[in-house]
């Protein structure tokens, strides 16, 4: 059994609970920094990034913009390292509000 299957089995329940709670809240279209943190801790970094992007674009959320900038500025994670994207998020965070 591959690592992807093991991780999928391990994280499907927290992901389903998070999705159900967002759907039940009636504001599934809205996202917040704390939703991204919960998704990051309970599901995956990719899920957290999706919530932080939504919060940053829809609500001009400063914390989400900073978290995204930090993720893309981190050179030790070559999968997400993108200095241009990091600059854009830092710029948006500096001008938010």
Question: Mean pLDDT score, rounded?
Answer: 80
Number of helices: 5
Strand tally = 0
What is the succession of H and E elements? Answer: HHHHH
Share in helix: over 70%
Shape assignment: flat
What is the straight-line distance between the termini? 48 Å
**How much of the polypeptide forms β-strand, as a percent range?**
under 5%
- Rg computed from alpha carbons, rounded to a whole number of angstroms: 15 Å
- Unreliable stretches (pLDDT < 50, length at least 5) are 22-28
The largest β sheet comes out as: none
Q: Which class of secondary structure composition applies to the elements?
A: mainly alpha
Explained architecture:
By secondary structure, the chain is mainly alpha-helical. 73% of the residues lie in helices and 0% in strands. The protein is built from five helices and no strands. Helix 2 packs antiparallel against helix 3 (45-59), helix 3 (45-59) packs across helix 4 and helix 4 packs antiparallel against helix 5 (83-94). The protein starts with a helix and ends with a helix.
């Amino acid at each position: 059994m591959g690592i992807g299957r093991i991780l999928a089995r391990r994280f499907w329940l927290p992901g389903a609970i998070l999705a159900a709670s967002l759907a039940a809240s009636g504001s599934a279209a809205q996202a917040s920094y704390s939703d991204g943190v919960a998704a990051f801790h309970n599901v995956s970094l990719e899920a957290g990034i999706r919530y932080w992007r939504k919060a940053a674009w829809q609500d001009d959320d400063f914390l989400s913009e900073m978290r995204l900038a930090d993720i893309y500025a981190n050179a030790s994670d070559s999968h997400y390292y993108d200095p241009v994207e990091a600059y854009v998020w830092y710029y948006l965070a500096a001008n938010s509000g």
